[in-house]
Structure formats: C-alpha cells, structure tokens
Amino acid sequence: MSRTLEPGLSLLTAAEIRVVVVPIGPMPRDTFDAYLGAFNAHRHVPLHATCCLHAGGPKSPFPHLAVKCGAMHFRFMQADDARRRSRITDLHAHRQVVGVLGLLHCPLLEDLTAAHTEFGRAARQWPEALVSRCCGFEPSPAHLATPGLQKLTDLMLLPAQHLAAHLEVYMTEFAADVLAAIEHVVLNASVATVKLNTYADSGDFLGSSLAQLEEGLRKLNVNEEELKEKRRWGRLQKAKGDWALLAGSPRDGFEHYKSAMELSRAAGDAVRYGAAVEGLAHARVLEALIAARPAAAAARPAAAAAAA
User: Fold this and answer.
1) 207 in the Ramachandran plot: left (φ > 0), alpha (ψ -120 to 50) or beta?
2) What is the rounded distance in angstroms from the CA atom of residue 69 to the CA atom of residue 218?
3) pLDDT of 174-233, one tens digit each?
4) Contact at 8 Å (CB) between 180 and 247?
5) Mapping DSSP to helix (H, G, I), strand (E, B) and coil, where does residue 282 land?
6) Residue 270: which H helix or E strand, with range?
7) Contacts of 195 (CB under 8 A, 6+ apart)
8) Would you give the DSSP letter of residue 56?
9) Is the Cβ–Cβ distance between 242 and 94 less than 8 Å?
10) pLDDT at 62
11) Beta carbons of 290 and 70 less than 8 angstroms apart
12) Under a CB-based contact definition with an 8 Å cutoff, are residues 119 and 24 in contact?
C-alpha cells in the first residue's frame, strides 16, 4: 500500500490537476508565498464559469460533464516537489504534472522578454505538461510597453489592484484551457500507444508473489496476443476514467472504470483491475459531492432567513 500512498491525500486527490508553480527571475520568498496563496484561493473552478470560454462540442469525450454543479480542482506544487516524479503516472493520471505556471514579480524585473524566455526553459523540465502559462504581477508602464508583448500569448500581466478578482478570471481561463487539453488527449488516445511494461508491471512494484501470480495467469491463457490486446484496452479505459475525473466528469469516469474492470479481470491484469476499482470508488464519492452541492447551496438562504 505504501508504494501508492503520498502525503496530502484527500477525497479530491484523484480529481486534482497538478500544476507546478515556478518563480521566474528575482522574487523574495514571502512574495512568492503570497502569490502561491492567492492562487490556492482559486484552486476550485466551477465548470459553469468555463462555459463561455470552452463550449466543448459534439465530439466531446465527456457527455456527462457536470457543468451545472461540477468543478475542476487544482493542486499547486512547488518545483522541488514536482521534480520528485511519481513512477506510477501510467497507473494513475492524477500523479502526472498537467500544467506549469511561471510567476514573475515585475517590480524586480528589467527585461520582461528575457524573463519569458527563462520561463520557457523552466517549463521544459516537465515535457508531459499539457498547458504552460506565465503570469506577471504588478507590471509598470515600461513593462506594458515591451516590444512584441502581444506575441507572448502565454503571458498575462496582472495589476496589483483588485488582484483577487483578476486571479479568479485568470484561473477560469486557465481551467478552460486545461479542459480543452484533456479533451484532446482523450479524443486522440489510442490503444496502440498503451504501454504494457511500466514500473507498475515490474517485480519491484508488484513484489515476488503477485508477479508470480500474474505470470501464472498469463500462462493459463492460450492466446498471448489476445491477452495483451485485452490488457491494452483495459488500461486505455482506466486512463480515460482518470482523465474524466480530472475534467470534472465523474459519471464518465465511472463508465470507463467499469469497462476497465471487466477487461482487466478478463486479462488477469490484477494491478490495473485494483486501480480501476479504486477509481470507481473515487467516481462514486465525487458524484455524491456534486449531488450534495445544490442541496447545500439551497440550504444556505433558508438558514440565513431563519437566523434573521
């Protein structure tokens, strides 16, 4: 069990989108902590807020997306923590870094273009990230007049005034971009790219007894290629379930996990079967939380009226 556990687990862990936050250029530690705290205040983005920025489409892989009451959840990580990569991202998509966010403290920056270039180099440390953005705080008129600024499409400059309101809008746009990127991944996912030899398939992860059990199950199956094909399809369904949770669609995740369980059981893919069962439980819990949210929202006005 300890091989799959990590600090900070919660009911939302399987639905949390990991975003690395990287300070770019000179920045006092307390300033960085303040910016990080400001982003954490907006780590839950309601899906309905993204509608005007991300309309989805007829080919959306998430037909049951909980737009009215659902949300996307973000987990902001510092670079040192993100560099300690999990070896089981193939087993659990939520362990993967999905976004990179560079922070600039403009009062200490002389060259905005050079800082943006430095951010590009820093972001390349996480090639698996789907979305990378750069955010500059407290820009001066000189920063706003930087030549070629409009071409830096992944850079947003935010004034010090009304910062919370600006960040709320910024995080809504960021969430819409991440949702679009996740949809692209799922729509283009192919069984041909599914790996069968990952760390979660190794003896180091499985332990000798489970590894021997899986080997025995493989020998019982007379058609090795058919077995491999079922494993690939089961793992593909498991991955799609993971991405559905990150997108804020536990109902779609539930359906994918059910398929993954059936395929993994038929293929003797014990670890993926267990991971799919775990995902199914997460989907159930997240669905219950979404279902409870409208009732809780309706109860607040009534409680306020009773108190008055």
Assistant:
1) left
2) 44
3) 999 999 999 999 999 999 999 998 888 787 777 655 555 556 555 555 577 888 899 999
4) no
5) helix
6) helix 270-307
7) 90, 235
8) -
9) yes
10) 95
11) yes
12) yes
- Please state, in angstroms and as integers, the Cα–Cα distance from residue 126 to each residue in 101, 133, 198, 242, following that order: 11, 13, 19, 20
Q: What are the tens digits of pLDDT across the range 65-82?
A: 989 899 999 999 999 988
- DSSP string spanning 54-87? ----TT-S-TT--TTT-EEEEEEEEHHHHHS--T
pLDDT tens-digit series, residues 80-138: 988 887 788 888 999 999 999 999 999 999 999 999 999 999 999 999 999 999 999 99
Amino acid residing at 65 = L
Q: How many CB atoms lie within 10 A of CB 38?
A: 17
φ, ψ dihedrals at 169, nearest 5°: -65, -45
pTM over 0.70: yes
In the sheet that 44-46 helps form, which strands lie side by side, from edge to edge? 44-46, 71-78, 16-24, 97-105, 131-137, 155-158
pLDDT of residue 204: 75
Residue whose C-alpha is closest to residue 290's, from 94, 93, 65, 52:
65
CB neighbour burial string for 50-62, b if at least 16 within 10 angstroms, e if fewer: beeebebeeebbb
